[in-house]
Amino acid sequence: MGAYSDLLRTAGVGRIIAAQLTARFPSGMLSLALLTHIERVHHTYGAAGLVLAAASVGQAVAGPLTSRLMGRVGMRPVLIATTSVCAATIVVVALLVMPVPLTMAIALLGGLATPPVQPAVRTIYPKLVNSRLLTPLFSLDASAQEIIWIAGPVVITFIATQISTAIGLLVCAAVMLGGGAWFIASPELGRVRIPRSRRRLGAVLRRPTVLLATLVGFLLVGSCAAIEAGVIADFGDRGPEAGIVLAIWSLGSLAGGFALGAVPIGPWALARRMLIVFVGIALAGLWIGNFWWLSALLVIAGAGIAPALAVIFAIVSSSVKFSDTAEAYGWVGTGQLIGAALGSAVAGFLIDRYTAVGAFWAAAALALPGVLVPLIGRRWHPDLRGRDASPLPDTEPVRISPS
User: Does this model's pTM top 0.85?
Assistant: First the structure.
């Protein structure tokens, strides 16, 4: 815990973590708000899954593009524009009843305008702390973001079930605007300038470590999206139980992140953490409908999520140049969002056909390859034991004038 204390005493770290968590807080509410709102309007989880998939596809396409754009025009202009457009699309979906295809189009636009807060803040982190504290900072970030998934589902399910699904979406838009304004105003955004990458878009994916992190993130988040849809389908019409189960699940992730945050990252780290996720999901699928057993087993699954994400962030940071970090994290985010799109869509159709248990089948089917891929790709997994996770320095030829 000493490293965490040192981090929080470092100037600016606590402020930037709090600001970016607030800006990203709608992430813990928006998918549930859309799921419940579209299901309430169109009376089918299949339609809700399609709308969520459209939003996730938009986010996936935008991830590397907006991240790279921050290196060209600066972080603040990109964040201001994307935050404004994304919030506007949420308001439109909340206030207008539209056919499913048109709702999907608006959701796609909102996804394309998703503010690139994660790539921005994870590019800033190496400039805030020394190399000794960078890996603990990634662990702290991955653990702290579980606050989003603990409070967000509880808040949005209460609003959606007890007040209105449309009000729930409007709350998401308001928090996005307020949190985004706080993050954009943070002094750290003005102190860090992302160098313009000299490589063409997508070249960073040639690094096997970035590709490994992107693929595992796709599988991890896809399984999480399927679980989220399954829990909502199982408890969604009975009150706040779904939000509480999802909050308990996230609490397990928070605990796992703090427990494993100081453990050195070796070449087996990602596979081991994904194994925890898979085992928890496989067992939880046997207890659909039982609040207490489902919650307890999802705690096991959750205990591997934040630690796995922390490893993904650290191995990407240690494998790319600083000028490529924002784009690399954009691609990792794209992989995660494609996984969310696939997980939500498949789970939605399986719920309609097989009830909530179908979503857990989808989650397990995604989590199992999440264990196998880092095993097969172990040689591309950096061994950070005794090393720091700082990005590689940007270098360029030095022109020497003749004497």
Answer: no
